[in-house]
TrEMBL record:
Gene3D superfamilies: Galactose-binding domain-like, SGNH hydrolase
Location of the Sialate O-acetylesterase domain: 406-535
GO biological process: carbohydrate metabolic process
The organism's taxonomic lineage, starting at the top: Bacteria, Pseudomonadati, Pseudomonadota, Alphaproteobacteria, Sphingomonadales
Pfam families in the cross-refs: SASA
Keyword tags: Hydrolase, Signal
Hydrolase in keyword set: yes
Signal peptide coordinates: 1-22
Name this polypeptide is given: 9-O-acetylesterase
InterPro entries: Galactose-bd-like_sf, SASA, SGNH_hydro_sf, SIAE
Gene Ontology molecular function: sialate O-acetylesterase activity
Amino acid sequence: MFGMRCAKLFVLAALATPTALAAQILDPVFADHAVLQRDRPIRLWGRVAPQEQVDITLQGRHRTVHAGPDGRWSVVLPALRAGGPYRLEARRGSGGSQSLEDIAIGDVFLCSGQSNMEFPLSKSRGGATEIASAADSNLRLATMPAVSAALPVRRLAQPLDWRPASPASAAEFSAVCWYMARALRRTVRVPIGLIDASWGGSTLQAWLSPAALAAGGGDRDMIDLLAAYNRDPASANLTWGERWRQWWLSEISPTDEPWRQTGTTGWARVPLLDLWEKWPAPVLADFNGMVWYRTHVTLTAEQALQAATLDVGGVDEIDQSWVNGRPVGTGAGDEPRRYPVPAGTLKAGDNVVTVNILDTWDTGGFYGPTERRALALANGRRIPLSGPWFYRKVDHARPRPPRAPWHPASGQGTLYNGMIAPLGAYGLRAMAWYQGESNTADRLAYGDRLTALYRDRRATFGPTLPILIVQLANFGPKANRPVDSDWAAVREAQRRHVLNDANSGLVVTIDVGDPSDIHPTDKRTVGERLAQSALSVVYGRHGPRAGPQPMTAHEGNGRVIVQFGDITGRLSASTAPQSFELCGATQSSCRRVPASVGAKSVGLPSQPGATRVRYCWGDSPACDVRDAAGPVSPFEISLTQARRPTAASR
């Protein structure tokens, strides 16, 4: 992401390397410079020999525990107040010890989501100045390794890389998370630890645990297919290939089957086996969409009988691959594609390799060394897929093929498995969540999935864990009339969820996005608003939890009056607001109406048949109403709906 390819990994089941962790007694999530949560019992755990005694010491607190038959142990130390630096010592009964230095006791925040949470400080507006003054020994940073897994990973492969804040450690850290913590550090005078677990382009369901998925947060059919993939990847890929085929025939063309074609009619020669934006002629310059690739490889009878692996190499962004018309694999993300070829697929003579590549943004196509693309035989020989290659562009505005449940960013629990499960029950003060862009296509399910996420995180990190939601920013086309909007629907799901959860906060960002860039660079405003919300929700201080909210909408005497609560100061608008709508039962009934803004209410002229009030409903609406703390959230409210203002607004 962001001009560089991050080291992201997909594994069937990730386990810590024995050699890397041989000397460890404590779980690798505990490391030098870590922050442990203050004012609550401190849970520590790890792994040693079965039944072995472990002695733990931290700031005068000492506990002895014996490992179970599997070598796992855990212990709970009494709570500590904020402070440090301390030494955490662990000793084996059989000899040997482990000491962690510079341990701080303070508040720990988990920052999670997709690319706008992952977006680094170095690329944010004003980032260079911020980085230059980043030194802070009481602000500690840790980024979870980018691992996607088909099964939960219980232990990191290497100790978590906790680092005190410095220009070097801050530069590539999450900008939103960083700015939140810097703002909090001005008023919350305790050490703060930040754990960033983010993956660009990820869907919410990728962050749910197996239990949360089974309880309704996921797709039952997809969960079953993922289980089949864990047992037999080749068989699951065959099943998935048939599902993909059915999608193509029903959504793109009922008669065209490119994976079965062998001729070149309608296909053109690939000029360069690299990202198509780099091709000498601008055939696919700035193209985001789907392209078919095909090449041929000749095998002897002996070679065709061998087990083989199709080594496709790097693909940007999503591929579905076939050999001789038989589906062999699908992948997404940065990992090179390597697919086992089922027995009986290859044949003596001509064999056809077909790869469909979907690119949804930025660059697309193959990338990396050409020699990486090959048919790897069981006897060790690699037969290069050196071409010639042919391609065919798919003339479809926005193809949306189904995503396999083991895909890293859009799978069923794949990112929970690889990036949340290894945290165990690490003590947290709160979680900041910035995600939703990748779920706009299935907006109706987002509210239920958000509910599943809340339950999931609180089941792991505590039943009252505060969760702060960054609402989607403005992105996409501006509309001069009422429109339906997937982005607006996700924003509304986020808003309503926060209002129904007292331990949750909402950060409105409808005024700091970029209609032409899904990654706006003003992360300071977002982070500082997160800090404002945290001061209210996490620390109980007076301030906005979610910004001004519509409480009631009443109609009478030819006017609709929308009353607001949770206001800081008074409502205002720099210009006459143009983004209020009155709607009936259908989208076509929506009409924009002029608005007059008062201190705590907005007045609108009545419209026949109106049953709903909408504000700022669109991908990139013009939103002009705010209070002293920030903008009013986009919303939809029924004319019969009523909510009482909270105590903070009275």
